[in-house]
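Support request, please re-run this one:
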Amino acid sequence: MRQQQILFCLALITLTMPMHARRLTSLSQSFLFTRPAYDNLGAREALWDQASYGAQETCLNGIQASAFATQSISSSQDGQYFMFDKKNKLIVGGSDHADRDVLLTWLDSSSTETGFREFIEIKPKTKQYGAMLQLHHCLGQHTSFKLFKRLWLEMSAPFTITKNDLQLTASQTLTDLFNRADLTAAKLSPTERSKTNIAEVIVQLGTSFINNDNFLLSTRTGVGIPTAGSPDSTYTFNPVMGPNGHFSLISNINAQLPLTKDDANGFVGIVGAVQQRYYLPNKQYRVLDLDEKPWSRYLQFRKEGETATVPGVKILNQYVTVDPYNHIDLYAGMRFKRGGAQMDLGYNLWVHPTEQITLAKDGNDTFTPDFTLYGIAGSTSAKSASASTIKTLAIDDTGGFIVLKEADIDLASGASQGTSLHRISASIGAKGKHKDTAGFGMISIFYEAPYNWANFHQWGAWFKMGVTW
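Re-run finished. Output below.
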């Protein structure tokens, strides 16, 4: 029992790692972490758990191949995440339109402004699909030591295709302004953005404490190794692959509790599983805003004493340290079996906190790029106008040129906001056995809804087949 105790303790330790970061509630977010489609605890474990873990004193070898797909469902609130003032439609207008949300001058300084008033709207959607292969090898087959008799090694690698689309609705003029050449980050693409890759490789050690037709208690502990990096910030809502380039420590506890005996009349039981992933920090580029100035990334800035201006994204696309903390995946449901057939009805809760963002400095102890050399461009050459917002161009500063300070940066604007996803699912499948070889297959469908605007309403499906020996 020693190795089971060690793995169980490791699972409990990692499950108690920090779950909550401080809650960040700024508007006009520039980054959104979408739930990986292959991160489906209920569908992944169904049938695979008992089939691969073996009987009470043994474990088995196995292969499970899965195909999955998810599609977001449009909501009128989805665009609010990337815009501001709880709007998914903004008015871009000249100074002669008091109802504007965005002053045209910031996007096109050469514009005469007169009479210009147009809408820009986004309704972001995402879809993912792909396949995953899981390999399960019983280490106990290679030794007579009881310590390793029920210890197994499991590896999985999800291949995913992620497609994100802002569904931008705007005139050609505004589309061109938000995708012009000097806008080196935070562009608003009028077309779908896509990325394809193996998201990560997951390696875990596991063991079962109890495993028969009625009871199940097992645990796994391991690591997630990213094989695809973080998306660049050239476009807002660029596709994220799996763990977004983060290494992770993974723990899983899986259980089945019978409510009836498994006999000719069938079986009814309760199933449950909890998985945590503690993501290690990494460094990425994220587009930031100024504090209490949503969309200030699109303002114009200049250096003191200079006439030329640059768009805000050139200095506010910062190299930062991103700490996602813990992501928790909890599944609970009812299991019904009769003969080789099985049906699961379940509820899944997926939770992650708000990312913690800190500015990273280079070897010369300066920010990358160094925004402290710039101030918001005023209406007069070489002047600053620090009170300006995306809606207004304020009067020039009279007490001298005001440059940005570290305290002016809204780090929260570049962080994926904390949320929870609530999923209901139904799975149906069957298994069969011939001598020492068993096979199984299952299909699962689900619908999920987010707690807030920091993720999407989605539906999805999962199909898998496997064999153990």
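The helical segments are 2-15, 41-45, 48-53, 104-107, 172-177, 313-316. The radius of gyration is 26 Å.
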